[in-house]
Amino acid sequence: MPSLSVAALVISHRQPSYLKQTLEGLLDQTSKPNQIMVVETSSDPESLELARNLGISVITPGDLKLSAAIEAGRAALSETPGWLWILHEDSRPEPQALAEMSKAAEISPSVAIIGPKLLRWEDPIRIQQLGLTVTQIGRPFLMVQDEYDQGQHDTDGDVLAVSTAGMLISNALWQELGGLKDSTPLFAQDIELCMKARAKGYRVVIEPSARVHHAGLSTAGKRSRAWLGGSRLEALAKAHVHLATALWPMPLVILLYVFMPVIVLANIPLNLLAKRPKRVFSQLSGWLWAWGTLPARLSGRRELRSLGQLKSLSALFAKPAQVRRRRLSELVEVPEAETPLLSGIFASNQAWFALLPLIAAFGLWPSGALYGERLVPLSDSFSKVFESVSAELVKRGDGLLLPADTFNWFLALVAAVSPLGPSFGLSLFVFIAPALAFFTSWKFVGIFASKPWARTLAALGYSVSPLVLGGAYGGQVVELTALVFIPLAGFLVIKALIAFNPARSWRWTGLAGLALALVAVSAPVAALLIAVGVLIASFVYYRKALIVVWSLLPSIALLWPWLSHQLTVGKLELLTSTSWASSAPTSVSEYFPYIAAVAALALIGLAIANPNKAILLGAIGSLALVVSWYQPVSSSSPLLGLAVLAGLASFASAMDSFPRAMRVAVSVLVMAGILTQAAAIAFLADSKVSFGQERLMPALVVAQANVEADKVKTLVIDVNGESLEAELVWGDGLFLEERSLASRFEVTQLDREGLSKLVASLVAGNPSGVEELLTLSGVRFVLLGSSDINLLSQVEVGISSMEFLQPAGKSEFGLLWQVAGEYGGPDLKVSNPNRDIQLWILAAFALLALPTPAAIRGSRRALKGER
Amino acid sequence: MRILYRIIALTLALGSGAAVALMPPAPQIAMPQFEAQQVTVEPLPLQAACPGALVEVGGVQGTDLGAIARLGSALVSVHGADVDSEQTWARFQAEGYPQSTELLSANQVQAVDRPRLRGLAAINCAPPTNFGYFVSGNSGPGNESILILGNPNQVEVLVELEVVLESGVVTERIPVAAGEQKAIPLVSLSSAEPVFAFSFRTSGLPVSAYLQHRTVDGLTATGVDLIPPQLAKASGVIPGVEVPTEGFAPAELRIHNPGLAPAEVVLQIANGSDFDLQRVMVPAGTTAVEQLELKGGENLLFYESDQPVVIALRNQILDEGLDFSWLTPADLFDQALRIVVSRTSTIFIVNPSVTAFNLVLEGPIAQSVSIPGRSQVAVAATPGSYRMFGSGQFHALVSIKNSTGYTTITPTTMRNFGEQLEVLIR
Questions:
Q1: Tens of pLDDT, residues A2-12
Q2: Cβ contact, residue pair B204, A796, below 8 Å
Q3: Is the entire prediction scored with pTM above 0.90?
Q4: Do the chains contact at B417 and A602, CB–CB below 8 Å?
C-alpha cells in the first residue's frame, strides 16, 4: 500500500451535480488521500452544502481563476502534503486511481507529475485524454482523443504534459515552479507547468491504470466565456500563441509577431475553405490578444527557459504524421441517404429537356452586342465594366455623384467569364437564360416533388413561360437574371437549412449567399421576400439558423450603397429596382392566359399535395403575387416568376400522388400546352432585341477615349427639323454598366442654357462664342446625327464653316468633328469606395461555397465518440 | 387539420389572385422632364451661286479634244443683291432677317444656238451645298452630261463623286480650289452608260453644283438644260409638266433609290380633273426609268414613296422649237416667295393640300388666284420681280417657252438654320 502524503484539491465552479459524483469518487478511493479540500470559486450554496454534508472541508475564496484557486486550497490545508492531487469538479476518480498513481510515484523518484487516463464521463469505455503535448508549431494536441479504451495505450508512460484534471504533482515541485500561471491562457497552463517540470529534469508520466472520468466542461466549451477567456476556439488560439512564443527560437518568435496579421489574414481563406468561419474570429482575437499581452508572453518564455534546456522536449511533441492522422480521423464517411435511383437531372436523362427552351430561344442566337429598348452594349473589357461596379460617379452631364447600378455586379460577372467580350457574354446569357432557368427551377421543384417527369414539366412550364422566354425575347436582362437565380437561391437556402452537418450547411450557405446576391442585384424585392423566408425558417431549423442567416450578408453588402443613398435622399421607391436596364412596369393581364393556366394547376396542387408543402408553397406564391402589384419603377416580373414557380412546384408535388394513368394523361395535356406556348413565343411574338456592333461612338472617339478617358467628351446633336436634341457623352459612350437608374430621376448638373446656345450656334454655323463654350464644357468632339439626310447636310455646312472644328469624317453614328484646343472641362475620377469590401465578402462566400471533403463527399466531422 | 391547411392555402392563393386582379395599378414615380429651350442664333448669311454660262466641250465641231469653253454669258436676275460683273460665275450673299427668297433670290437664263448646242437653259441659283444627288446622268449616243462645280469658299474643297452605274459604283475625288469653277464631263466616269445617277459630298464646306445636259440627234442639236442637285425625299410634287403636242415624245421619269431597302413609289399624274395612278418599284441602290405618256396640256405629278428617293422628269417639247427641260420636285413654301422673271414665262403654282386657297401675286402683273386642292394654276408672267403669298403652303415653277427653246426654273427655299431653334439638352 503506497504511503504518500496526498492532499486532494477539488476545484469547483457551480457544477454541484458533477461535484457530488467527484467527491463520492474521492471518498471511495482504496488509498484515501490524507486531506480533501474543495475550493468553490463561485460560492455556489448547493455545492458548499454538498461538500459539507459529505464531511469534506470547503472554502470559498471568491471567483478565482484556476491557479489562484489551487493556491487558495493549498493554503487552506491543515498539513503540508507531499503530493497534491488536483481534481476538477467534473473529474470523478475510480476507486483505484490514487493508489495506482501513488504506486507510479513511488517506483520512480524522478517522476514529479503523474496523470491518470481520462475517460469520458458519460461513456467511460472511451478515452477522453491520455496526456497532452503540442504540435511542431506549438498548438496544443491531445495524444489520444476520444478512442475506445481497449488497453491499446496502457503501455504509454512519458508524455510532455498531463491535464490538471486528476494531476498528481509533488507539492515541493509545485512550490518550486510557482504553480500554474493565471496570465497563461487556460488551455496552455497545464502544458506550461509540465514543461517547466521537464526543464527542471523531472519526468511527467501517464499512469493508464489510474482512471478518472472526466466531463471536459472546458474543452467542450461548456464553461463560461469568462472562465475560458473567450470562446473555446479563442482560448485554443491564445494557448497556441503562448506556447509558440515559449517554444520557438527567438528569431522565429519575432517573425511570428511581426507577421501575425498576415498569418491570420492568410488563414481566413483556409478557414473558409474548411467551412470553419468561426476560426476566423478566434484567430483575429488571438492576434490582437497576443499583441496586447506581448510582455506577459515574453515573461512566460523567459521563465520557462530559465529553468533549463528545452531541446529534449521536442521528442515528446506530436509528430506530423500523428497530426495528419488525427485530421483525417475527424471526418467520418456517412453512407448516402437512400434516394431514388433516377433522382438527378442527368441520371434521369431529364437534362435533355433543357434543349426545348434552348431551341425556343434560337431567335436570340448571339451574333453581336444586344440592343433593345433599355439595352445597349457593355464596355469592351472586363476592367472597364468593373470600373463601374459600386462606382459613385455617373458619367452624365458634368458628372453626377450618384451610386452606380447594383446590377453592375452581374454585368461584371458576365464580363469576367466571357472570353469573347462582355457584350457577347451578355448576348450569350440572354440566349441560354431559359435553359438555365430550366435547370434551376428543376432543382427548386425537386425539394417539393420527387418524380423527375413532374419536375421536368414544372421546369419547362417555367422556363418557356412568357416571363422567362418572353423576357429573353424582350431583352429584359435584369428580370431574366432574377428569374434564373430565384429558384437557385431558394433551392440553396433550403438545402442549407436542412443540411445534416455544419460543414455542409456552411457550403450551402456560401452558395446561397452568392445566388441570393445575384437575385438582390436584379430583383431586390424578391430577394427581400427570400430573406424574410430565411428568417422565418430559422425558427423552425434553429440549429442551422445562425449559419444560414449569414447567406444574407452578400446581398446586404451589395445593396448597401444603393440603400444608404436612397435612404438619404428619401426616394425609397427606387429600392425596388436596381438597374437602368430594368423593364417598365407591367400588368398581370399581359400574361393572363399563362397566369390563369398556372393558377389552375396550382389550385390542383394545393388541393392534393402534401399539406405542409401546399401551405408553404401557397404562402410563397400568394405573398409574391400580392407584392408584385407594387412596381413604382420597374417591372415586378421576377415576383410573378416566384409566384408561378411556387404554383408549378405545388402542382408537381401533387403529381407524386397521381395514379399512373392520370399522371400520363395530365402530363400529355400540360406538355401540349408548354409546346404551344414555346412555339407562340419563339415564332409569333415580336422580338424586341437586335444585335449590333459593340461600339457606341465613332472609332476616332473610342481611340481618343482609350488614351485619355476622363478628358473626352462628345457633344452629340440629333437634328429633327427645327428641334435639336443634344447630350454630352463621356469617353467612348455610355455603355450599359455606365448608365444609372438613379440618374434617370436626377436632373443632370449642366449649364443647359450655355449648352443650348452652343448647340444652336453650331447648327446655325455661327462661330460667335462657340470656341469658348466648347472649351468650358470640355467638348472634344461634335457628333451630328439625323434620320433626315437632307437636314444633316444642311447642318453640316454650318458646323464645317467653323475653322476650329476639324471634320473627322462620316461614321455610322453621324458626322464627326474634332475640336482643336485643350480640354477645359471638370476633372472627375470615378471612385469605388465600397467595392473592395464587397469583393472581399463575395470572395469569402466563394471560398465557403467551394467543396471540401466534409461538405461534398457525404463525410462529416465526427460526433463525440463516433470514431 | 389537413383539410384546414388546404382550405387556408387555397384561400390565400385565390385571395391574392383576386386582390392583384382587382387592385388599381400601383403608383409610379415620375421622371423629371427636361424642357426644351428656345434659342435664336444669327444664321449664316444667305448665299446663292449660279452655274454661269453654258459649257461646250470639244469645240464647235466636237473634234477639239480636251477643249472646254464657256459660251457667252447667261442672263442673271437677282433680288436682294447686286450682280458683280467681274465674276466669271455669279455668286451672291445677303445678310438680314428673316431669311427667305425675299432676302435673296436669283436665277439665270441663257439661250444658245450653236451647231452642237441649241436651246434654252435656265436654272434657279441655289445656295451652295455639301451634298446632293443628280439622277439625270446621260452619256449614251447623242447625250452629254457635264458637272459644273464651283467653290465659293476661301479654302480648297475636295468633292467626292459616287457614280451609280449598272455595272457598279465608281468613285472619284475632285479637288476644287478656292473661288474656282470646274466643268467635268462625266462620260469617262460613267463608262458611257446611257442612264446613271450620282451623288457628291464635299469634305465639309459647300460648293455649287449643277449638271448641264445636251442632246443631239445626228448632226442636229435637240436641246440643252441645267439641273440642280437634289436630296432624297419620300414625297414631292413636280409642277408645270407641259405637253403642247400630245404623243410627240414621252416624258422620261428617273427615280433613284439611294437607300438600302427597295422603294415602292406611287405616282399620281393630274391633268386638269383627270388623275392617273402608277406604281413603280425601285430596288435599293438602282435607278428606274419610266416613260410617261402624258396627256396634252399641263400635267402635275405627285409622288409618294416608302423610302426617300431622288426623282426628276425630262420633258421634251415640240412647240416653236425642239428642246427639253429636266424638272425636279419643287420646294414647299409657307412664306412669301420672290421670283425674278427675265423673260415672258408661265408661273405654275401648286396647292398640295386638299382644300383650295387664295394666292396673291404681286409684280408687273398683279392678281389674286384661287387654287383648288391638289391642283395647279398657270399664271402668265412678263419680265419683272414677282412676290407671291397665300393662305396656305404652295409649290411653284417658272416655265419659259419661246422660239429659242424650252426651260424651267424651280425656285428653292432660301433659309439657313438658326432663327428659331428648339434645343433639348438630355
A1: 568 999 999 99
A2: yes
A3: no
A4: no
